Amino acid sequence: MKRLIGFMAIVAALAAAGGAMAETPLIWHDRPTTEFNNGLPVGNGEIGAMVLGTPDEGRVALNDHWLWRGKTRDRKNPDVANRLADIRKLFFLGRNMAAGQMANAELNPTNYSGVDPYQPAGDLLLQFPGHAHAAGYRRQLDLSAGVVATTYSVGDTRFAQEVFASRADGVLVVHLKAVGPDGFTGTISLARVADPECSLISTVTEAGTDKTEGAHGELMEMVGQFPEGVAFRVCAHVAVIGGVARPATSDDGAAHLAVENVRELTLVLGIGTNVSSMMGLPPGAPGSNDLADVRALVARAEAQRVEELRRRHVAAHRSLFDRCTLSLEGEDLSGETTDRRLERMKAGKPDPHMEALYFAFGRYLMICCNETGGLPANLQGIWNHDIRPPWDADYHHDINLQMNYWPAEVTNLSELAGPLFDHCERLVPAGRAAARDFYGCRGVYFPIVSDPWALVNKTQGGWSEWTGAAAWLAQHFWWHYEFTGDRRFLSTRAYPLFKEIAAFYEDYLVPDPRPESKWHGRLVPVPSYSPENEFVGGVGPVSLCIGATMDIELIHDLFTHLLAASEILDVDADRRAQWRHILSAIPPLQVGKFGQLQEWLEDYTEKEPGHRHYSHLVALYPGDQITLEKTPELARAARASIERRLANGGGGTGWSQAWLVGLWARLLEGDQAESHLHQLIGTYASVSLLDLIDPRRDPPGIFQIDANFAASACVAEMLMQSHDGVIRLLPALPKAWPGGDAKGLCARGGFQVSLVWRDGRALSARILSRRGGSVRIRPPHGQTVDDCLMGDVPKPFTRRGSDVLVDCPAGVPVSLRFAPRT
């Protein structure tokens, strides 16, 4: 009993210490910005808003996740499958260049360029000329509340602004308040960047007496229309207390409201489009606000007091955000602005709190970007102010969209992967036709890039000849089952998609006919390529070949999960022999002349040894075909590949740096993983922590959100891993994080894991099973499980070498304490 009391006292003390370690998750600055990438983002899964500007020229850039152009939504694919046999003959004759040129020309003869771009809805402009010389300025984003707050003083008056995108009420709320002798005097406007292809109609009308005593309201609207029929409406109800508000005339196409000496102002804004209805979704479908609905949405929200809107929003946001937290020991730098802390990191100084903040920020962005029934996060999440954004802010399927959803399961946001699953399923009908027309195959082919119209076109020239997109996206369906145990999801959504993709490969894979080749008779994908790399003797911009390693790994991943699902569901037993044959007939992974994991079936020489992509390492992370335990030789080769890339200048983008964190974590190299996380934040983050592809080459940098998401997943991988039926605790803990606590990480099998560690050693862990069941736990290196408790009662467990087996009843936490291994 004395030992038990001691354990409980330690747990209580650690809980208290963990609270003292944590910073409030704030991004904050004492200077304004007009640079979009340095703004502070809010979002509710549909509306995205970037808060930026100066006290006299404030700006809230507006987006709706459904607002995309639709100029190309009627594209048709050619029937070119009859050309595939001739192209394959050239590949098997060793004529890679000629075969690649023929494939690019004849399998993609349309020369479609790009997809429909994601569009800005406009800007809310807050112009107060008298505030040009403000003092005491501060702007901050509280990640835990999902609220951006800006404060400053002019003379004896303190001005405050709050902005949040309500997850509870579906609207954007902007609240202004003046405390002192003066009020807000200036203009509130709804405007949009000049765009000759968008016609605008803007109005301001009096809305009468508002709900708050002494308040009156105005209704501002801006309606946009594109030639192809896409339309949108921005609707804002503005309630003011004190002073005067009246419509202001202008010939610039914007809606303007003049305010004079206003003491308090609440603006409730909604955005509606007709895109979901153009896609055939039923009226009122979850995740979409139609043009006709947005006024009613705003009216429902503005009927509540702003305090109630804020309370409801914060509660809804915290219900997701608070599920998983990370605190790390380190110097308290919370009194320093975020930009100054980034400068310290660029100089090589440690800041574990910033690394924990970056983890939290990725989860925050995921919450902001996703809602049930909506679209998945694109290359910029839901934040874009360009009518021609980089890469159209599209859905890139050769790494970027996958990265966007890596943290969904492991950081306790499983339901937010729903938009990704919906996106994949929307692609299936067109994917079937594309598989038939391009390759003469059954099943589905997904393109390298897409947009909300669910078309399956080749729009990227030579980049389009990649067949691995569907198999890689299917990985997320399997993870969702692994982490949740949702058999209905496996049966009705995951397994049908696996079978569609498998049918494609059943037809697309061909036996290697070359009698002189060691791969004679093996099933190989042709054409194939490794995103987005070239080898000497191959065609550009990406080199086509026989059997790129990544494609072989994805085929292995798909058929492994297909077979497991078939057995779990007890269906299609007669198909399993064929699926096992494919698994055994594809070539094994190869070790090349440099000791590296070969990127292609042949050991070609890369044109760019330091290439940004680590495509052929997908089997190490996020996959699990390569592990230190099961395939040590391949793990060593994967490490050699990483080292060779880095020695030649690799990791030159934000998302590439983020991937390195996960790859090193799987190799149990915590110091290496943390080093790349530090570099990612210090080099590739804007002052608002948004990922920039490469700010060194593209000043001021191109915002692309994938690294923000991927980093959160990869940090989780440093702290806990759960592949191959084992929960590994602190498997890649770096020396830079000697102490910390993590709460609410999720493991395969339906387990939640919380950890406390000090001086580089785990002190306690808490395992909570959602479904009940036995779990195998691997303590941190050099440690063993000393005690196991369920509540206050000691619980028996079984040792298996250094691991322990613990039976966890559903909903009842099991606590572990650790000791040094003897």
Number of strands: 32
Q: How many strands, which pairing sense, and closed or not: the largest β-sheet?
A: 9 strands, antiparallel
Percentage of residues in DSSP E strands: 15-25%
Helix amount: 25-40%
| Helix run count | 19
Strand order of the largest sheet: 1-6-7-8-9-16-13-12-11
CATH class designation of the domain at 81-111 and 392-620: Mainly Alpha
Cα distance spanning the termini:
24 Å
Spatial extent as radius of gyration: 28 Å
CATH fold descriptor of the domain at 81-111 and 392-620: Glycosyltransferase
What is the arithmetic mean of pLDDT? 94
Low-confidence stretches: 1-20
Give the oligomeric state of the chains in this entry, treating copies of one chain as homo and distinct chains as hetero.
single chain
CATH-derived architecture of the domain at 81-111 and 392-620: Alpha/alpha barrel
Outline type = globular
Class inferred from helices and paired strands: alpha+beta
